[in-house]
Amino acid sequence: MICAPVFGYLGDRYNRKLLMAFGVFLWSLTTFVGSYMNDYYLFLFFRSLVGVGEASYSTIAPTIISDMFVKDLRSKMLALFYFAIPVGSGLGYIIGSGTARILGTWHWGLRVTPLLGMLAVLMILVFMEEPERGQCEGFSHLTTTSWSEDIMLLTRNQSFMLSTAGFTCVAFVTGSLAWWGPNIMWQGLKMQKGYENVEPNSVALNFGIIAMAAGLIGVPLGSYLSQRLKVRYPKADPLICAGGLLISAPLLFLGLALADKCYYPVLVLIFIGQIALNLNWSIVADILLYVVSPNRRSTAEAFQILISHSFGDAGSPYLIGVISEMLKNFFKKSNIPLLLASVTSLSNNSLQIADVKDNKNNFQSLQYALFISIIVEVLGAIFFFFAAHHIVKDKELAETETPGWPSYTPIVN
Prior knowledge:
By secondary structure, the chain is mostly helical.
């Protein structure tokens, strides 16, 4: 998160191919080495270096795609790139739980992925070409501005700032669900008859499959809707993002509310809710690329990563955990309000507050804390609605380079 602006600066000025290869190599190496660390602080240090490597790749890769493809084709390529996030997260649950079960230790989960990372480094160095910045959009030899001027211009770009705020809300929800989703599902399931001895790994596996499938469907679906609607409705992109969040919010709320009542209907609700949430990924990336000039796109990517992680998925698991602990202590000291109980009860008599057990208390405290994510989703939709008001103007400014921006010589076909 902190190193993203550094790679954003470098990515707008130096060879992006080598920067990406360095990032993938660093995170693969430190992932492998970190798995052998028995000291907590050494382990934490190497896990932090993993993040440094990821900052390089995630900041620069979308800008290379933007210089290789334009318009609908770029949207399709971004969808192909960004669906790796939910799919990779889902595979993490599957491979992580499977490896831990087969080999009896979580360490080997960290020792499998570096092999794929080294393959990626080789493919970047051998097969990837470094495109000229803005080449597919008819720009040639764009002038680079200072980093401070880049930041100043980006903060004045209302579409970029509002879409970043909306995406931060998406990251908040994604982070809280990725961390606490399997836990709340497991706690709710073991309170149901016949599932008292269910294993956490089996629940994590099912949750991972759902997350991966939702990504496979949601990310390309968002790109498809964007390509179809943007032709007639220039403001379609932020409106699709807002609509996805407003659809996802009630579905995830019902999934959380019914997590201790039924299992398979809850899986369906969370699955559809995550599909709607995943509509955002490729669209937000595309918005950034067409409302920001090519010579500062890496900086814009870095800025968006910094903000979305700082106020999104970096803090949401901890915040949800803190609130859950506060509620847990409150529930132990006082009766659970009937009003709150009725939210998750199918029957007014289903909760006998005086007889609440520890597992019920743990479940409900986490459940109510996760309801915050639903409020954040609605807030994100509001940000995207405001972004729709500015999107056309900011896109035109990025395409024409308004006075005060660096000059360039367009290639006339």
